[in-house]
Amino acid sequence: MKATVLKRAGVLIALFLLFSSNAWSAENLKPYMQVVSDTTDFNAAVASTKNKLQSAGFDVVGEYSPYENAQVIVVSNDELKASAAKSKFGGYGAVVRVSVTQNGDKIEVTYSNPVYWARAYRLGDDQADVAAKLTAALGDAKAFGSEKGLTVKKLGKYHYMAFMPYFDDPDKLGGFASYADALAKINSNLEAGKNGIKKVYEVDIPGKEESLIGIAMTEGAAADKNIMDKIDIEGTRHTAHLPYEILVSGDEAYALSAKFRIALSFPDLSMMGKGSFVEIMDAPPAIKEQLSSLTK
Fold first, then answer.
1. pLDDT tens digit string along 245-260?
2. Residue 62 φ then ψ, to 5°
3. Any idea which architecture 30-293 has in CATH?
4. Global pTM?
5. Spatial CB neighbours of 212, under 8 Å, sequence gap ≥ 6
């Protein structure tokens, strides 16, 4: 009798774990997480956020202010880099973008949801451990950035709509004689401030000839402020969309198509109307042109 009860209990536990796992994998994911700020002062919030991240073992690899009342803090750690090393073009997943934004009388502390972006970047793991460390460091978080969110399956093959690019349809920015030559040329142009483009960070992926370079754009249709002023206009701000990236992989330089990267950051963005893709239709070609200029 006792053996039968134990057997049934074992079956029930197995079923519970199975369905719990399936429910988690089917759970809709959103691009950002928001935590409660422990201060109403912008500068104090930036300092506090950085301190919490560093105390939790995250390395601040770069930071910048894309516009007034906004600060982006980019972090990485060994887990993120190891995860990024497991898949083709996985370097995009080597960082988490954390932002502090003064939105009216509110201080918003948010970050890019590592589980969402890991699925979209088709990484070898879901970065759930990184997500847990961020929660431990910054506090309980609420997902936002999409009303319904996206399933794991949809994120893995995401594109905004028919005839729009996927993750594996990147912009090819330029080719070089070697990986070292690629990094040297791009960094030389960044140091010169070509086209008002600035370097925010650089992270090297272990065991691969691959580096992720964060880029701040300040001029023309590609400018961070120009784009965000037009589409980041309601609710909690999506500041952690920034900055854009160049991925040097081997002897080639790539960037995610802006039609993919922006859509992934704003999955509910409409095609027409106020705050829509139509209002930034000149941004994707401008971004590609400016990033490509760094390879010349």
1. 999 999 999 999 999 9
2. 180, 160
3. 2-Layer Sandwich (3.30)
4. 0.90
5. 84, 91, 92, 94, 95, 201, 202, 203, 205, 245, 246, 247, 248
